[in-house]
Amino acid sequence: MTISKAEKKRKVELRAKELKLRLIEVYTAANKHKEDNLLEFFDTPPNPGPNPKQQQLIEAFLDSSYKTLGMSGGNRLGKTTILTILGLSCLFGKFLWNNQSITHLFPHKKPRKIRYVGQNWQDHIKAVVVPEIEKWWPKSRPVHKHGNGVITDTYWRDEKTGSSIEIMSNNQKTKEHEGWSGDLILYDEPCHRDIYVANARGLVDRKGREIFAATLLSDPWIDREIVKKVDASGKPAKDVFWIHGTSYDNVGYGITKEGVEEFSNKLSDSERSARIEGIPEYMSGLVYPDFDRRQHIVGSFEVPLNWMVDIGIDIHPREKQAVLFIATDPRNDRYCCNEIWDHGDGTWVAEQIIKKINHNNYRVNKIIIDPLSKGDSNNDKTTFQKIYDILSLYGYNLEVASKDKDDGILEVKDHLVGPNKKPSIFFFDELVRTIYEMEGYLWDKDTNKPLDKDDHMCENLYRILLLDTKYEDPSDSFYKEYLVNDRTNTRNQHTGY
Predict the structure, then answer these.
(1) How far is 96 from 141, CA to CA, in rounded Å?
(2) Count of C-beta atoms within a 10 Å radius of residue 446
(3) 284: exposed, middle or buried (C-beta count within 10 Å: 0-12, 13-18, 19+)?
(4) How far is CA 466 from the centre of its chain?
(5) Residue 365's closest CA among 407, 405, 337, 384?
């Protein structure tokens, strides 16, 4: 039987339609699967995946040495999103988008218990937190949910693992947060300190962790006690990871630059600083906002013999005396490598400096002191003269430091962030007092000058940097003599007499 051309054409068209319908069905099913399993496709186009700040938090989360993690910054940075994703991943025991197991982070092998602390029940938890969990929870994954009598869906249990999330409010009474134990606490926006303490107790039994996602507007306790936490010795705590970002860090990852700028134009300068740049009002007055623990603080090491060391002295009659040691390496990078912070008179200060020099075999370049030390005579001897007399016995000179604070502060800032956006000054982590001052040095709003408070090491710092020390190679003759020289004698290591 002969088939006409028209019939052949019709059959081809029907076949093409059938294939097209099947493709549509497959495409629709695939899209529906993606919509119902967003977490599985978190890093798959067209989804943009984690932005750079979120990725840093994810990588830090995989490092079990970090017990406290946080992301702060401007609005729409993606803080709530990454907080929720990390929380759900802990429930499921892996990152669904790359199938990476994270059960090793919870060695007890029990169902994991998580708390999610939001703000008020209606405006934040019901409107933001619960929808975010709903958005990222795979629709095909069995879940048991119930409410708390105030709103629905405040408890989620993953039926596959038995792990659970309990949502709490920052507005609840403190005692309602007590008596819980678990593996992880998620804080969406800052919490009250008493709420934090009540929940922190619950992490002890399982050696749990905590993650903050917050725009820090008016909670200085979090900055001082958590972001800038120190260990028992006063050194920066090594179990804290904190990342800061701006709204612009999320451009291209769900928001646009035009959208950010449109929002920014509606804000006052102070609001823009807090909500776009993520700089809270209580930190807007920092003299050195670019000081960053992760960039500028390094583990202490033995300063090489050929590095040049400058020493700055800031003297106060009724306070602790401040002495800062800064080494310059062959690349002219600076290392704040030692400090003295204690009570004592001029003679005591000079003796402590000599002990530090001899103990560490420092190659001293210059020793400078606060100009006011020449005007505090006591029993016919100024502090300057007392220190000078002792230092000169050991062959060291003492000079008066510069008083040009404005240029000095600019010099410090240039070292913290250079032209290539890289630092050229670093601080040993054992310099407890110096780091404390760097993180809290503030401008006086009334005078537009730095506050005359907790600034002694900062004074030494800018004065030393104004010396503009340039590294010089020691001569062969000097170096040979230096290596064999008895450091207890009184000969000057530079002049030899």
Answers:
(1) 12
(2) 7
(3) middle
(4) 28
(5) 337
Residues 383, 317: Cα–Cα separation, whole Å: 9
**What's the number of CA atoms in the CB half-sphere (13 Å) around residue 41?**
15
Checking DSSP bridges between strand 94-95 and strand 143-146, what pairing results, if any?
Answer: unpaired
Question: Could you give the CA distance from residue 198 to residue 329 in angstroms, rounded to a whole number?
Answer: 48
Determine the CATH number of domain 52-284. 3.40.50.300
| CA distance to 330, 481, 488, per residue, from 474 (Å) | 11, 11, 21
CA-to-CA distance for 487 and 146, rounded, in angstroms?
A: 74
Give CA–CA dist 189/212, Å, rounded: 7
Angle formed by the axes of helices 52-61 and 79-92, nearest 10°: 30
- Model confidence over 260-313: pLDDT tens digits? 999 999 988 877 887 888 877 667 788 998 999 989 999 999 999 999 999 999
- Cα torsion through 260, 263, 266, 268, rounded to 10: -60
CA distances from 481 to 303, 493, 496 (A): 18, 8, 9
Architecture field, domain 296-484 = 2-Layer Sandwich (3.30)
Residues facing 314 on adjacent strands: 322
Looking at residue 117, its amino acid is V
Pairing mode, strands 240-245 and 425-428: unpaired
Neighbours of 436 (CB within 10 A): 17
Strands (E), 246-314: 297-298, 308-314
pLDDT tens digits, 50-104: 999 999 999 999 999 999 999 998 888 999 999 999 999 999 999 999 999 999 9
Q: To which H or E segment does residue 220 belong?
A: helix 220-222
Determine the Cα–Cα distance for residues 368 and 85; give it in Å rounded to an integer.
54
Question: To which residue do tokens 């009474």 refer?
Answer: 173
Domain coordinates of the chain in residue numbers? 52-284, 296-484
Please name the helix (run of DSSP H) or strand (run of DSSP E) that holds residue 455, with its range, or none.
none
